[in-house]
Amino acid sequence: MICNKVEIRNFRNSEFAEVEFTDGVNVLLGSNAQGKTNLLEAVYLACTSKSFRASNDSQLIKFGSDGAFVSVDFTDTRKQNITFRYQLGKRRQIELNKNKVTKISDMIGRFKCVLFCPEHLSLIKGAPSVRRDFLDFAISQLRPMYVVSLQKYERILKERNTLLKNALDDRATYDNTIEFWNEQLCHEAAIISRMRESYIKQAEAYMAECFFEMSKRTGRENEIPTLKYLGSSKQESYEDLQVTRDNYMRLLHERPEREIFAGTSLYGVHRDDVEICLGDKSARDFASQGQQRSLALCLKLAEGEIVKKDSGEYPVFLLDDVLSELDDGRRKYLIDEIKGKQVIMTSCETESELYKNAHVINVKDGVYTVEVKSK
Ligand SMILES: Nc1ncnc2c1ncn2[C@@H]1O[C@H](COP(=O)(O)OP(=O)(O)OP(=O)(O)O)[C@@H](O)[C@H]1O
Ligand SMILES: [Mg+2]
User: Fold this and answer.
1) Which of 2, 52, 219, 310 is the most exposed place for a label (fewest CB within 10 A)?
2) What would the pLDDT profile of 50-104 be if each residue is shown by its tens digit?
3) How far apart (Å, rounded) are the C-alpha atoms in residues 270 and 253?
4) Is the CB of 62 inside a 6 Å radius of any atom of ligand 1?
5) pTM
6) 120-314 CATH pick, 3.20.20.70, 2.60.40.420, 1.10.540.10, 1.20.1050.90
């Protein structure tokens, strides 16, 4: 998977830019607040249709403008293009190869990328929702059907929560309809759990390998990371859909009054987590800052390896400010790791071994200029 070009208009702090990438390492280089991350954000839209940092689309539109445009050209087995049009007060329009996209599941997985940004450090110590988001994004890229299940699950959960919230005032509606929602919730929960668990198993193997290689250079290779999927129904395995479905049904029937009292759904995949350990210790409780960085980076590199295994090609690696988070040993490891892959990274540092053969794009005030190397 190669990202060939991105074009932006009135996007964030850039009025207009057309930036081409090479299939190796591309570095967006510039001081703080110039528009480096903004361009990564534009490329990332092609992957999920969502920004990794804006809470709503209007934030993407340049201040003072009433609309923005993003176009990303990429190649897998053929050349493809995806465009986004934003207009203040209107729904965004997406086109894939000039055809209007009406369902997000139709575009997800076309352009595959792995993003690593400073916020990903919270994968280790942050709230369970950070790890669930990681899983949801990673699996969605591989299996568009997962997006369909997730969307269904979220709709069911919302309806069920409303029912629970109103149950004390309107017990009759609750009694008449709860079973319908229970069944649907458990059905989708079983599908999602199985996919999450299977993904975690794959990620664990790659992550351990990567962590070993990385630690070799720092003399701490005896610590092996492990990952365990923690479903809210606390099963040892989520392989069997019927077993998971039955387990969730049993939990929902066990103490319905508790859920009515809480006014919300207490069991389901919205309460899942992933346990990350280093050796036999919980990384959340004991990992040092550096270990957290290594674990998060390894998890992200594992995400890339899984895409490669599944689709036969590496995704595009989008690395935001990753160098400033890594020591020399880890930087060297990363440099070796990204050889042969397409990388679009941002950096403020003008001196780095990484840039020796890289395609450098200088970024200043939303203007992107390719650096011409002197021989
Ligand atoms: N909608 C918008 N309109 C205009 N400017 C914006 C908009 N959204 C963000 N900006 C500005 O874009 C600038 C560049 O942001 P960006 O996050 O890309 O910086 P950066 O080059 O990655 O910097 P750093 O090295 O600090 O991470 C910021 O000063 C920000 O205020
Ligand atoms: Mg930035």
Assistant:
1) 219
2) 999 999 999 999 999 999 999 999 999 999 999 999 999 999 999 999 999 999 8
3) 18
4) yes
5) 0.92
6) 1.20.1050.90
